[in-house]
Amino acid sequence: MSKKSDKVVNLAMVGCGGMAGAHLGGYEELWRKGEKRFRITATVDEVEDRARAFASRIKQNMGWQVATYKSVDQLLNHHAALDGADICSPHGLHHVLACQLMEGGVNVLVEKPIGITVKASKKIIATAKKCKKVAATAEQCRRSIGQRTIHWAFNQSALLGDPRFWFAVSVNWQDPAQFPNWHWRVDRKLGGCGMVMDSGAHWVDTMRYWFGEVESVYARVEQIDRRPHRKGDKLVHDAREDFWTSILNFKNGVVGNWSWTIAAPGKGFTQLTLSGDNGTLVDSDIFHPAAFQARGECQLVDGTTYSMTKLQQLYLKTLSKKQKDCLFPYGITNGTHLELWDFIDALSNGRQVEIDAEEGLRSKAISEAIYESGVSGQVVKVAEVLSGKVNAYQRDVDKYWNL
Ligand SMILES: NC(=O)c1ccc[n+]([C@@H]2O[C@H](COP(=O)([O-])OP(=O)(O)OC[C@H]3O[C@@H](n4cnc5c(N)ncnc54)[C@H](O)[C@@H]3O)[C@@H](O)[C@H]2O)c1
User: Fold this and answer.
1) Domains of the chain and any CATH numbers
2) Contact 10/75 with Cβ under 8 angstroms?
3) If you take atom 2 of ligand 1, which residue's CA is the nearest one?
């Protein structure tokens, strides 16, 4: 385990909603397993009761006295000696809060997607450079044991051989009339848009991790079922797509087909198929494949089959103790808990994180290339989305945030 330094880092949790609860569970596991190089000293939420509920859970489970604040302004004005902030806010606030915190001298871990647009992500990167702060993307999936195993099966071992192509297809039905509560995600200025960039952020990062950079994208992105949702006596229009189909051309020649809909009334299915020269791996999740549990199986050209559990055992056998301590410290295999450990260890040791904001931006650009292609009807080069040359889809969100 990388423990050159015993420096203890003081953290604030900013945004104490759903995902922050999973982060808190991760901090609790790290603490229980013996990671003592961090303290949570502040919680921040504009709904202060949420910050207070987190503070009392922290006091109960880790014994720390935690200050609570309603805003990052208050935090920066009244809270001393902060090393890092863990931001779990709506997407549109990622760059606002991250930049404010870094300008205030605090390193940041920002939930995916790093920024609401490419420009917002670049602002985070520029501020990190200017303020000499760490800006990390909280992206857990590639760190999970299932995804590390698949990376190994394609890239380090000859098991699956050179990757050829993949199909990730999910065809399901969700009745807009039954959608849960109105939420910031339905507002493009706060959410950015739908699953291409929300849960899709995990898949684009995973694809880059397994297969390298994407050169170009062709996509159709639609909202097929345009009925509004009902919230009490209000009708709420949702900006998010309920259908996309996309072709992704990787620089190494791999081709991917990523298609998703919740506008298919009736019985649905979800399937992921990853093929290499020597075999094919099948799973049943197109956003977090193999991330959280041992699902799926692999069949080789000679007929041999491996469950994901078996494949994971084969992978783990190849790792030295030092590699295991680095990838799965304290034996932890939950990607979210590992991303928090990476942030703590990086701040404690003054090293870089595995997935910094630049890495987050490269993944983000693929999601945006899909939207941009949906708007233009053309094949879109990811490099042109990264450079800002192609940005028609993101323009109104950038304008709203003065980017
Ligand atoms: N990695 C994952 O698997 C995963 C899963 C779900 C959500 N997320 C990400 O986590 C982030 C938060 O999503 P969520 O589902 O937890 O949303 P949420 O609405 O449950 O939580 C957001 C919280 O931020 C608070 N907030 C809003 N404005 C604020 C401000 N200015 N200052 C402080 N707090 C503020 C809200 O009151 C709320 O408590 C998003 O980036 C989302 O994409 C990641």
Assistant:
1) 9-139+330-356 (3.40.50.720), 142-327 (3.30.360.10)
2) no
3) 19
